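Need AAA+ ATPase domain-containing protein's 3D structure for a figure. Predict it.
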Amino acid sequence: MWTELSATISSLAVAFFMFDKYSHCLPYIFRGYLERNFRKLVNFVNPYVEITFHEYTGERLKRSDAFCAIQNYLSTSSTENAKRLKADAVNESQSVILSMDDHEEVTDVFNGVKVWWASGKIPPHSKTISWFAGTEEKRYYKLTFHKYYREIITKSYIQHVLKEGKEIAEKNRRRMLYTNTPSKDWQGWKPTKWGNIVFEHPSTFDTLAMETQKKDVIKKDLIKFSKGKDYYAKIGKAWKRGYLLYGPPGTGKSSMIAAMANLLDYDVYDIELTTIKDNSELRKLLIDTKGKSIIVIEDIDCSLDLTGQRKKRKKKDDDEADKEKDPISKLKKEAEEERESGSKVTLSGLLNVIDGIWSACGGERIIIFTTNYVDKLDPALIRTGRMDKHIEMSYCCFEAFKVLAKNYLDIESHELFGKIEEVFADTKMSPAYVADILMPKSEEEDGETCLKNLIAGLEAAKKSEEAAMLKTKDGVVTEG
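Structure prediction for AAA+ ATPase domain-containing protein:
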């Protein structure tokens, strides 16, 4: 019996090989008919079921989340069992990540059921030269198991693999800093809307030059938000929160964003509005962002002319009669304004992204606007519900100075602190300027020298402020 069975299997194997090699010579309809019936014959004697997970799926060939989760899950099994491995170096480190090489197989056991995982790739049908990575080959993972355990595998094991793979990815995840590519570069095969690098900014709330009480309030607010998934679902709101950081230049707005990302372990998406063609492209960018992220638009008052668009529209409505009298001049003027503006992102488009229907695409997102001049922003842009919390980043105070002294000089107390506190009370100096003075410029400079330099700088700034006030009282107008 075994002799006859082995002979039958060998014959089927030879037939399958010949069919696979010469099937392209047959008509398409006939070839499909033979293939379907041949598969039925093979399945009759083959008790195993195969499930294939491809790396890229969908019309836009988006990388499959399931493939990535399986890759993470198998990374442990492959390093223990596989004989052929691939090594990927981690950026700027001596460690490597090992994974199963192509056309390699490992086994796994789940609740006493043995399964086989194999990795493979499909070569291109024709030899072509491509400028894009990943276009030549299509990779996949194939799961094989006995058909008797179909229900266990499909209902329990696969879910177990995906869950474990996602947890491994979350554990090994490195924070990334994303920036949007110009809209004109989105065309082509597998376009990329976001470029990224590893986010390694060292700023934390402990190193921020700010009052301790104020920092504690912000930290509690952030932690409360990060744990509020069920609460936001209960009240029927998108799981997002808006922060407006405003204050003079050099007061630590960018450092605050980095500290938030480090506290919550979030990625950062830095949006440059001037490179976005229109509102539609802005929505596409939002859709391509992930959860656990901070979306930042820095210097919102300078990114686009969002603040004056309502005034311009009102002026156009008031001058409609004059424009109708001279339609040629109107067309020329509109064409010139369009060339100058470049981007057609509007205030209403930005508002819809912040708290419209599109803002609910995904969850656990923080949206941050920064500005040096909060008075220039349209009130609709920063109202509660869009920018939920307004944080003023002010000039350096004595408590903030003590944080900087500890950071830069490792000094927590000094006899010169009393004098510095007196001068700080009447002087406006940004934390960035104070930090620059406190930073030693040579090996000969010690902590006391830097503190004396700060006192001299504060006194000079105080005299400059007094002179400016005196000129203002005398009616003297100066530039700047």
